[in-house]
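User: We ran a pulldown and think these components assemble together. Before we commit to crystallization trials, I'd like a predicted model of the whole complex to look at. Sequences follow.
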Amino acid sequence: MKEFFFNITWIIPVFPFLAFLIIILFTQGNRKLSHSLSIGSMVLSWLVGWGVVFSAIGTPHLGEHPVHKSVPWFETGTAVFEIGYWIDPLMAIALFMVPFVCLMIFIYAVGYMGFGTEEVDPNYSRFFAYIALFATGMLGLVISENLLTLFMSWEIMGLCSYLLIGFWFEKNYDDPNKITPRQAGLKAFLVTKIGDLFLVLGILYMYSQAGTLSYADTLFNHEFLTHLAQTPALPIFGGWSAASAIALLIFGGSVGKSAQFPLHVWLPDAMEGPTPVSALIHAATMVSAGVFLVARIFPLLNIVVELDHHNPTMSIIAFIGAFTALFASIIALAQNDIKGVLAYSTISQLGYMIAALGIGAYVAATFHLITHAFFKALLFMGSGSVIIGCHHEQDMMELGGLRKKMPKTFWTFLAGGLALSGFPLITAGFWSKDEILAHAWEEFMHYGTASWPFFVWLLLTIAAFLTAFYTARQISLTFLGKPRGHHAEHAHETPNTMTWPLLILAFFAITLGWVGIPEEIVGHGNNWFHAFVGHEYASTPLSIPVMLLSSGLAIGGLGLGWLVYGRKPLEAGQMDPLQKGMERIRLGWLYTAMQNRFYFDEIYAAIFINGSIKLADIFYNFDYNWVINPIVNGVGAVTRGISNIFNQFDEKIVDALVNLTGLSGVKLADLGGITDLKVVDGFVNGIADVTGWIGEKIFRPIQTGKVQNYLLILLISMLAIIGIYLVY
Amino acid sequence: MSIPLNWYLVLAAALFSIGLYGVLSRRHAIGMLMGIELMLNAVNINLVAFWRYIDPAKITGQIFAIFVFTVAAAEVAVGLALVIAIYRNRNTVVVEEIDLLKE
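Assistant: Here's a predicted model for the assembly, 831 residues in total across the polymer chains.
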């Protein structure tokens, strides 16, 4: 059985790709067939995927000896590029999550896109084609055996992200400052491309050093890694080793894809897409691909640290992650859009994972990656259920009191929210987040308070508290109290295709953490997750103070959030208590800044967009006002002056001579004139008439001014010439 | 097992003809641009196929194809800019209505 699954792993991304092709080419007109194809392909991928996962789990020492197969794909000159699959614990863990979450969201999308109702989306089938293509990209990325196919899948996902964010491309808003789906898609595409550029450079650098891109010969070849860590990098990287330069360049790709500071600006706007897309791409899978990539290159990071303790690569990664975690959670406090809060929460949680990788907590980061995918997908789908139930009302200030009206959504959302805030002991988020905090604590204890791990730990700890607080705020504002808007008053529970996936994901959001409970609690050898994933990396010892602290933070944050928002629920038209409180202590400006996302969009617009326009202006002026045009005009003026001189010469001297000749000519011409009029004119007019007739009747109709007619004539002439050439 | 060269040439010829037909028959300017792209890609298939079958040791065919890609990208950029400019001036992108060359 194991052999069987390990031999057919390549087929996992093929199913959704076939579904995509069939839908886009043939079945667009048939909604039911289209979504059945999409979901059916995902069921197959899921079954094969879990077959591979459980076979991988049953394989001892998989971490040391990954299973991999590849075939030549294409060659250029002497270089052969391969395509294949790679089975190791990290891949197995991701493969556990991706097809399953995809399947849940595909089913959910049937309800969300309004199948069987009057509000069904006009491009319903196309939506399912796109998400199937997306699944191809994500599954391809997970199973890929080298950096080239990884990058290819990465870009397929980028394309799908663009297409799906802008899925409602016809939508326009009255407020010109509100970003439309069309613009949001473009923004996401361009911003992530900045990161992708670094990723390409990193991959090319790797290729130039290794001459191959397969994991087996690069990332998992200890000799090569050692060599790479001892080779100095290109001069622009200062005195760093090639290994750290490559790692940082590849990390640049993750910064874009996982929406880390400073390239985080695209993710909140990506919420303009349909909610299943937000759940699938912008919470569970694509954005975690960035974290997955950093986890993939972890051997590279590891060797950098091992051979050079002072290398800043890891601390840069840890800082960017920790800073993003904190600052995104601060922004999330002041967002009123139900999906906006979740978007910033996603950025913040991704920051957690990146920070965890930066401090060397490989196991904790992958653990959080998986648990987060489940509970964040759940939260997004819950918010989508609220949006559908409340007729596309997304402003939390207009919601409220949905607990009774949408009970299934409420209870599942609560489960997801508790997992997100890390509610102690029972939720998945607690165990994974606690492990990250414990590892940061460990590092900080090791290096002391003046060191960078201390700041990472501090940032993450504050972020944990804020996470619990904004989760409580969101749940209270959405579900507790009385409805504050008429949409919320007429809310109804959503169809089964939407609530069932919620219930299933809620189950995982609670229980999934139990596979990674520290050994100190469950007994030696029972921390299954660490035993499977963390074969060669140090485990994080349980630390009771940290566990108490993170429990306290979660409960404290949730409790404070409940005190502020839940105990006395907001009435319609009331001001956000947080805003009120902050204004009272003269921090109103900070709240406004938080609401405006710390003005990052405005700053980027001022620097980059206006900068480009200014640059274009400079070129324009260079052309028209400063250099090129003045030169051209000057040359013209000089030429005109010279020609004036000649003109004078002509008029005064040459003309006189000519006139004299002319006068004598006239006399002679008078004689010839008679002959001319009768004979020559008749002949000339005849020719003119014939030419005119030809022009009028034959050539003028051909000169239609239409490019295509010209092209046709060109084609016919070409064929005629070729014909003549062939005949003779 | 190996696919004969002819097949590639037939494919390229078919693609070229489809592209040509698109250029000649599409009413929409962007459709015409897409037809041109098809024709360029047909050329690319030819280039790469000839490289593979005639002189695989050198990578000239591939390099040439990459040049064609680059030119095609530039051409599309300019073409789309022209289409937008025409649309702004004349409020149409139907090529039959764009006959300023006649004047």
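The CA atoms of residues 85 and 100 of chain B lie 14 Å apart. That may be worth checking against your pulldown data before setting up trials.

User: Thanks, that helps.
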